[in-house]
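2.7 Reproducibility. Because tokenized structures are sensitive to small changes in the input, we list the exact sequence used for Pyridinium-3,5-bisthiocarboxylic acid mononucleotide nickel insertion protein, including any N-terminal residues retained from the expression construct. No trimming or masking was applied before prediction.
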Amino acid sequence: MKTLYLDCFSGISGNMLLGALLHVGLPEEVLRKNLSLLPVHGYDLIVTKVNKCGISAIYVDVKLNDDDHHDADHHHGHHHHRHLSDVFQIIDDSQLSSKIKTDSKKIFLLLAQAEAKVHGVGVEEIHFHEVGAVDSIVDIVGTAIGLDYLGIQAIYTSALQVGKGFIKCAHGLMPIPAPATAELLKNIPYYNGEMSKELVTPTGAAVIAALSAGHGNMPANFLSETIGYGAGTWDLEIPNVLRMHVGEIKEERIITKAFVVEANIDDLNPQIYPYVMEKLLNMDVFDVWLTPIIMKKNRSATMLSVLVNDSMLDQVIKLIFEQTSTIGLRFYETERKIAMREIIDVKLPWGKVKVKVSAYEGKICSITPEYEDCKIIADEYKIPLKKVQQTALETASIIIKKDAIPEN
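Resulting structure tokens (single pass, no recycling of outputs):
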């Protein structure tokens, strides 16, 4: 499983992530080409090689062009006054892949929720300030582009050094970590350290909160294959860099902790369930399902079940209470055992599709062509979807046998 491990001994920010992704193999031209698909202009992406306490790293800076910026933002509102819906619209209006869009929106959603909780207002009342500005859109979407290009399937992080002291902002002096950052770092281990600087930004914290699978230590059986460094802005006594390891988790059977959340519901309009399920899946829960049940007095009802990691548990519970009619739910810890998964590109006569190959105890147990890739080809070439899927399956099987991967 292609895995990213982030060593955050000097914090993490959006531009540190971008720099590290470029250092480990994301081509700069790929990043620029994909960012150009966003309906956002009036900025220059400056990429430079720097040295931080003897470590060579890549520093990424987003320079706003004030002359062009006003016109570029005309359709989406001034960048200091963007709401979550404005940012989502910018992402949705692009031609980026669905995975990049989903990951980007997930990160921005957590940012908005954290800011809303800190200020005691609704999510859509939040004015994003610098979080909704062009530089943060570039940092967040750029990170999603890099993860997609590198084929990252899981992200793990060390404990984060956040810095100590106070930072000056629009509301006055705020303790480090800033309130929104602290909100995002719930259930994520961090420490202050000795640096009197803000080392973890809300953007960096939101990426970890939204996308990482585990925190605190390098995962067991992780083999680091490539290491890169993304530079931060500060010049400190320690290297102000994010160390990024790209590698593989070779373990055949991965057991992870998760929570099952359940609610028995007998008075909800059935039209609401697909809406709630979509919202939950957009939060990157592991699974959502419905079960028909019979409750007391022989009433027909539905049990809504969600499988989720610990960092998203509170948000899932909140959404269920907000969006359904339940007045109570239960949750309990469970274990997940998952097969190893690898995504391979398969070339068909009509184009490329991604195929997920799953293996358990050294044997292939599932070969699944990506539905969306097959659907695009079927629509474009006017051929049956089942024919595209079957061709992808047969071609993938040949590739697997050629590479001598044992099949069941």
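The two ends are 19 Å apart (CA to CA).
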